[in-house]
Amino acid sequence: MEKRRWYSGITSTEDWWSVWLAFFFIFLGLCSLFGVDLVGWIAYPSKWSGFGENNGLFSAIKPLGKSYQAIGFLGSILFTYVAFSIPLTIAARFMKWDVKQFFFGWTIIFAFTYLIWIIGHHAFFAANTLNKEKYDMSMVLSLGGGASFIIALIVGLIIGNFFKKFAKYLSVAAKPELFIKIAIVFLGVKVGYLAFKASGFIFDLAIAGAAATIVAYLIFWPGTYLIARKVFKLPRKTSAVISSGISICGVSAAVATAGAVLSKPLIPSRVSALIVVYAVIELVIIPPLFTATMIEEPVVAGAAMGMAIKTDGADAAAGAIMDELMRNKKLEMDGTAWEEGFITTSAIMTKIWIDMFIGIWAFVLAMIWVYKIDRTPGEKVHASEIWHRFPKFVIGYFLSWFIYLGILFIDKELADPAKIGAVPVEKGMRKLFFMLTFFSIGVNTDFKKLAEARFGKIIFLYLIALFVFILPVAIGIAWIFHHGMKVPVIQ
User: Fold this and answer.
1) What is the mean pLDDT of residues 399-426?
2) Taking a C-beta distance cutoff of 8 angstroms, is the pair 189, 425 a contact?
3) Where are the alpha helices (DSSP H) in 297-383?
4) CA separation for the pair 162, 17 (Å, rounded)
5) Is 280 in contact with 445 (CB distance < 8 Å)?
6) Which residues lie across from 63 on neighbouring strands?
């Protein structure tokens, strides 16, 4: 294997740009420590019904920052569009995408996303039974902000499957992996800030997530590999690729493993397609299923989902939906108001630990195939491969977490000024990029193409391994390590 320098791809890969873009806005948010709000312009929707002055459509979206209230509905959207369009277009140029098509595609995606985000906050979708009278509604679905995510996915799927020329045009800008990685780095700000208020819970969640992930991973990969080899009689390389795809981190792990074992390019492409399809299915099924059956163990549900759903985008997105569904259901059940974001964090925490295995496991498999199975003469596996296959957005997530945690522990008096810059980032920007992720997943999912592909045995292997083996084991392990952990309550 060619030895690459540590900085290879630092300005040209999606993984690195997710960190650069996220930290550009995180550092703008940190300026609030010096009394300057540079991120409060982010347009953020609230629940609405009708067109009146109170709770009406034109009051449904406004800047999150108090100092930006004067720019109003349209001003905040325009400000948000310009603020993200410039750095994203620069990133597209460095990644050698078609800049012109990216810009116009991004503009259309941005417009769709905000329109859907506003629609999803209509009281019919987002209000709960406790406050439906406030919006003059006789019936509500009690989906909270999760309605927007679901609608974004549905609209994206309609475009991706019924308006295929339009979807192809948007595909240059519809980048779910980039969007979700940025959102996850933003989530680190929320975890860092909330860790100051609930440090014991966050610490326990991190340790439990790490322990659960290690145990699950040591069961998932060999178990799936044995099913592939013994039950479905698949070749070693195919078994290794699909085992990593199902067990570790979806597309990233499948591609990394394929490179490590030098499998045929067709194998990771087919496995990746299956991962996306099953991720969409899980995204729709698991949040309401877990909400109906595990409402008293929300952290267990989140951790299990993080271990079971095999793409960062779908996992984080499903976590966001379940966070909304569970908080609304708990509020309706007994009036308990859980803090927003902790259920999402429990889902992402286990997924983050799993992501950290990608580079290490790809390196291990590369050594096994080079020195044991393929016995390629003179082939060397450089330790730097771990670094290059390690997902950089994971570093960004922890770094943003530790920056805010460190600031607040250094001086408690900084909590209020830090919050001014933190909230627009971890709330407004994070949710915007979740919305962009949902819409982009839909746009990029063409079920007809997937149906035409020759998946053979692997489609049944994936189905059995995921729902019969991995999901039940994930729930059991999550229960062992997270049972009894309570989401902090809003006081």
Assistant:
1) 87
2) yes
3) 298-308, 312-334, 342-355, 357-368
4) 31
5) yes
6) 43
Determine the residue type at 428: G
Query: d(Cα 348, Cα 319) in Å, to the nearest integer?
Result: 7
Rounded Cα distance between 188 and 345, Å, is 9
Measure CA of the first residue to CA of the last residue in the chain; give whole Å.
56
| Each residue's pLDDT tens digit, 86-97 | 999 999 999 999
**DSSP sequence for 213-255:** HHHHHHHHHHHHHHIIIIIS---HHHHHHHHHIIIIIHHHHHH
Residues sharing a CB contact under 8 Å with residue 287, sequence separation 6 or more, in sequence order = 146, 305, 318, 321, 322, 325
Helices (H) and strands (E) in the chain, counts: 22, 2
Give the C-alpha distances (Å, rounded to integers) separating 194 from 66, 201, 233, 251, 300: 21, 10, 48, 31, 19
Residue where the block lists tokens 């999402």 = 344
Owner of token pair 């595909």: 171
pLDDT of residue 83: 97
Question: Per the structure block, which two tokens stand in for 71?
Answer: 């720019």
**418, 408 Cβ separation under 8 angstroms:** yes
Strand partners, 122: 48
Give the distance from CA 240 to its chain's centroid. 25
Q: Is 296 helix (H, G, I), strand (E, B) or coil?
A: coil
pLDDT of residue 250: 63
* CB proximity list for 26: less than 8 A, separation 6 or greater: 185, 186, 189, 400, 403, 425
**135 token code pair:** 């919006």
Kindly tell me the burial class for residue 210, based on how many C-beta atoms sit within 10 Å of its own C-beta (0-12, 13-18, 19 or more): middle
Structure tokens at 86: 């410039």
Q: Which residues have C-beta within 8 Å of that of residue 197, sequence separation ≥ 6? A: 488
Residues 6+ apart with CB under 8 A from 27: none
- Inter-residue contact 57 to 420 (CB < 8 Å): no
Global confidence as pTM: 0.75
- Residue 382 and residue 442: Cα distance in Å, rounded? 38
